Amino acid sequence: MPLRCFLPWLLCFTMDLAFGATGYVRHVQCTLSQRTALCSGSKLSSVPVDLPGSTEELQLNNNSIKQLKNSCLVGYPHLRVLSLVSNGMEVIETEVFVHSRHVENLSLADNSLYLAYQQTGEALSALSQLKVLDLSGNGLAEDMVPFLLQNMTSLEYLSLSRNILLRLDQTIFHHLYQLKELNLERNQLFEIEEGAFDNLQKLQRLNMAFNNLPCLVGFQLTKLVVLNASHNAIEWFISNQDVEDTFHLETLDLRDNKLIFFPFLPSRSYLQNLLLSGNKVSFYQHLAYNSSSNWTTTVQFYNLNSNMSTVTASLWDESLHGDMSSLDLLDLSVNQVTYLPHGFFSQMPNLSRLKLGTNCLETFSLTSEGMSSSLYELDVSNNKLTVLQVNQSSLDMLGNLEHLNLSLNNLQKLPRRLFASLPNLSVVDLSRNKVAICSLEEQSAGTEYSDCVVLRNISSLRQLYLRDCSLGQLPSMAFEGTPLTHLELSGNTGVIIKEDSMTGISQTLKYLGLGGIHSLNVDFSQFVCLHSLDISANSLSLLPDSLLRLSLRWLDLHDNHLQTIPVSQAQILSYSINTLFLGGNPFNCCQLDWLRTFEEANTVIIEDLASLTCFTDLGREQRLSIRGLDMCGGVDEESSWWYVLLLLPAFLSLLGVAIIFFVTFRPNQLPREIKRRCWRPTPY
Ligand SMILES: *[C@@H]1O[C@H](CO)[C@@H](O)[C@H](O)[C@H]1NC(C)=O
Ligand SMILES: *[C@@H]1O[C@H](CO)[C@@H](O)[C@H](O)[C@H]1NC(C)=O
Ligand SMILES: *[C@@H]1O[C@H](CO)[C@@H](O)[C@H](O)[C@H]1NC(C)=O
Ligand SMILES: *[C@@H]1O[C@H](CO)[C@@H](O)[C@H](O)[C@H]1NC(C)=O
Ligand SMILES: *[C@@H]1O[C@H](CO)[C@@H](O)[C@H](O)[C@H]1NC(C)=O
Ligand SMILES: *[C@@H]1O[C@H](CO)[C@@H](O)[C@H](O)[C@H]1NC(C)=O
Ligand SMILES: *[C@@H]1O[C@H](CO)[C@@H](O)[C@H](O)[C@H]1NC(C)=O
Ligand SMILES: *[C@@H]1O[C@H](CO)[C@@H](O)[C@H](O)[C@H]1NC(C)=O
Ligand SMILES: *[C@@H]1O[C@H](CO)[C@@H](O)[C@H](O)[C@H]1NC(C)=O
Ligand SMILES: *[C@@H]1O[C@H](CO)[C@@H](O)[C@H](O)[C@H]1NC(C)=O
Ligand SMILES: *[C@@H]1O[C@H](CO)[C@@H](O)[C@H](O)[C@H]1NC(C)=O
Ligand SMILES: *[C@@H]1O[C@H](CO)[C@@H](O)[C@H](O)[C@H]1NC(C)=O
């Protein structure tokens, strides 16, 4: 019998054997350490029964345990932590936890518990010591949750995130007297009935991010420390102004909602972080009490289910923002603020970070009344500022200010000695404004507003960003006495950098950005500490020699005119460089030895390697990869197919001639040859 006939049977046999084997070893797939059994991702379809009886923690994530059978935990009476994430679990039978009542921490995330929630709920109610319960990602609707949470009087942490809850009523969390943290992130909540949280007297952290809540009114959870309601559709946040107690709220996250008014905060609180970015907040005092417009002054709120709620808010009274005396961070970036109300800052004596980037401010007073002396960071970038109001005599009030971001405005004049007057200023971003640097002569001309700023002798300044400032030239000793470590000058096309422009900072500078300035005649060897350099987009066809005397670690050379990098240079660079950008250069495919040098150095990472191309002698552009280091004039894949196509007809005709010759001159050999080929078993 030909051997071929055995083969399929043999294959089936071995496959059977393999399946049999995995079935047999499945109980020994756990890693045991102390009293923990780690059995995650082991293709288990039931809880292993042969683990030590003393096991306290059992990790069974990423298996396919579709149900927990009544007896499955009988052998583990000391179990405290049980995790069954991602098992496609549908049901927990009612008696499962009767013998392991000490479970404190139970994670059932990412299963399908909506299928048999009543039975599962009954099983869970045996866990009288449960503290942590994770039910996220289980397809649960709000009418199922009460079954799952009945009698959970000891629960401290509960996650119901990624379910499909629509509304919260008074019954849903009724028994959770000890709950400290509740996660309701990523449901579809659009309504919270009054009293839904009334029994949660110990609740400290509540996360309702990524839901559809239209407003939060009558807020009165005084014990709450963190409230996260970001990414909803909230237009109003109004706390109950009648509550006498001090709220414990420290962090209120209302980012990415639809707030039109500044939130009405509790009248007494310890609020420290108020996060409001990505809303439509503005101030409207200029519209109030305007005789020509007859606008309403209060707003009232109704609940869909119960009667009219008593919440009213006085819209225009801007002294009613609530208690902000402990505020540390106010993030109002990406809103529609056109001005800040009079006395706004007097309400926040402890403010240290103020973010007002991307708003509609046309003026801003750096020395407004009440501006906190603890202000540490101020960001007014991306507004419409043409002028920055400053009272020079009260500038030293801002003694703590370290970060000042003025970028993306339309500033053309600033007080000449503004930066020099701020004693602790460390980071200044003036990018995309039209402000020049004062020369030595201009410097002594006084303190008034001018189109240049003094940057000399500022002993605290470390980082200075002047990207796209249309700088015409850097005057002599522009930064003398200012120990900059980080200087960004990119985008100042045509800026003239004099020989002595940077003398003051040559010993301190670590990062220098000179991208796209198109006039790169700088002697880099003076910067003894420089380790990062951006000289992209400068039409360079050769690397400046002075650059090779540095020990650069980060070098950006993209969008230049480099055709090659001499191997000697590549070698020197590779001693110190670990990050390199080279995209957008017209490299020559025949001169890629530098690439091998970098490869061999093993420490150089070309960040944009995947996008590099080179040009062949014929002008064809091709992808550059390590594999194709010998790409010179080379046949790339496409053209080799052309050769095949061209040669194929010739080859075929030659073969034809040979066969005709063969058949014509050795006719008697043909049948035997065919016969032998057809009958001989193929040598497998
Ligand atoms: C489940 O497995 C996936 C992929 O292996 C992994 O990313 C995930 O973290 C695992 N989940 C758990 C809870 O271990
Ligand atoms: C609960 O157990 C999980 C492991 O299953 C662990 O990651 C988590 O930190 C525990 N939670 C608490 C509050 O101990
Ligand atoms: C739940 O608590 C109620 C009373 O609050 C009690 O009657 C009931 O037996 C408890 N159920 C379980 C399963 O403990
Ligand atoms: C609020 O929740 C979102 C989404 O999980 C998260 O990115 C953000 O950091 C949270 N906010 C706070 C203050 O923790
Ligand atoms: C009153 O409202 C009108 C139109 O809305 C506006 O033009 C005017 O400037 C307002 N008056 C004040 C004092 O703001
Ligand atoms: C202003 O409001 C009052 C009461 O709401 C109303 O009687 C009056 O007609 C309104 N006036 C104008 C000019 O709209
Ligand atoms: C709603 O109002 C009616 C009468 O005005 C009252 O009988 C009922 O108790 C109120 N319902 C609630 C939930 O306050
Ligand atoms: C202001 O901050 C200081 C130090 O951080 C702190 O001691 C003080 O209690 C804060 N004041 C208020 C009103 O929160
Ligand atoms: C500037 O500040 C000083 C001291 O804080 C104050 O006396 C003076 O009135 C202010 N000047 C202006 C124009 O606001
Ligand atoms: C400057 O900052 C340092 C800490 O960074 C701080 O100790 C010092 O008090 C600040 N100086 C002023 C004038 O606030
Ligand atoms: C200043 O703000 C701009 C725009 O918001 C941002 O891109 C830039 O990184 C900020 N500068 C600094 C030094 O943080
Ligand atoms: C820097 O300050 C010193 C004294 O503090 C002074 O002698 C020197 O002239 C100043 N340099 C510049 C460039 O202003």
Q: What features would you describe in this structure?
A:
Residues 1-20 form the signal peptide. Pfam families: LRR_8. The protein has 684 residues and is α/β, with parallel strands linked by helices. Among the domains are: 29-110, Leucine-rich repeat, LRR (right-handed beta-alpha superhelix), CATH 3.80.10; 131-205, no CATH class; 213-360, Leucine-rich repeat, LRR (right-handed beta-alpha superhelix), CATH 3.80.10; 531-639, Leucine-rich repeat, LRR (right-handed beta-alpha superhelix), CATH 3.80.10.10; 646-677, no CATH class. It is 13% helix and 18% strand. The chain is built from 8 helices and 43 strands. The strands form 10 sheets. The protein has a 24-stranded mixed beta sheet, with no helix packed on it. A 3-stranded mixed beta sheet has the order 40-42-43, with no helix packed on it. The chain has a two-stranded parallel sheet with strand order 4-6. Helix 5 (567-576) packs parallel to helix 6. The longest helix is centred in the last third of the chain and has 29 residues, at 637-665. Residues 1-27, 303-310 and 669-684 have low confidence and may be disordered. Residues 185, 207, 209, 228, 230, 251, 253 line the site of one 2-acetamido-2-deoxy-beta-D-glucopyranose.
